[in-house]
């Protein structure tokens, strides 16, 4: 069964980054999951809970609003178990993700935005409306489903603790729904409260305001387009008590970080992983790592899902040249 192959992903030492920042930096490679992303964990917990508690009948349709990865995971698991999947994606979803959704037999709806349940034409609004108006469907609703946090509390957090023999001092992860960082943070802080859990979001996303208990400005500009992370609303799957700080990064800096990392390591990273690299680069003076720290970077998927958005994009190359960036390495 597919669930037996989810989780227990490698945690590798990144020699390049460790030398660069003079500390031990480890990368949690979630693309080793069967669906090639960390979203397999939450998808399994949500789907299994729905079936076990008879929220959906045999052969029914799982519905989700997704930037791509959660939808891919749900489509893969649904197909394996004999169910269907209908995924509502935002207009910015990468071509590679669309192709994968189609390969797993998912029905796909492209939507104007992903700005929350109360915004007409958003992925969340339309997914909820579809599920409410069609028989034998279940909206997994990753933004408000407690199993999103539970999946990482029960699997990812314990893995990181065991794989580092309890030595982990920091975890840095992109924040989209908030489920990954919240579940990881809850578990690790129960083991040792001093472990730092740091999130990364795009410039003008709202998590920083929420974490700092500040009102969210009504006229906040559109946040930078970094696929998979950033929000205009605070999902129920984000637990601010499990997170110490959020760092904001720019889209262009994240793209540059991905390209520079590939040049230095020959590794392709996904968009939110690139944002984590950008946070290291632009906020390293604030992070103040010591030689004894053990820093885990959470890489939720692989760069092969963003070839046209990052690595083969003429526009990206032009933007980087126009910005006169020096190599990050």
Automatic annotation (TrEMBL):
The Tryptophan synthase beta chain-like PALP domain covers 4-301
Name of this protein: Cystathionine beta-synthase
The UniProt keywords, alphabetically, are: Pyridoxal phosphate
**GO term, biological process aspect, one:** alpha-amino acid metabolic process
Q: Which cofactor does it need?
A: pyridoxal 5'-phosphate
Q: Which organism is it from?
A: Sphingobacterium lactis
Under PANTHER family, the record lists:
CYSTATHIONINE BETA-SYNTHASE
Classification via InterPro entries: Cys_Synth/Cystath_Beta-Synth, TrpB-like_PALP, TrpB-like_PALP_sf
- Entries under Pfam families matching the protein: PALP (PF00291)
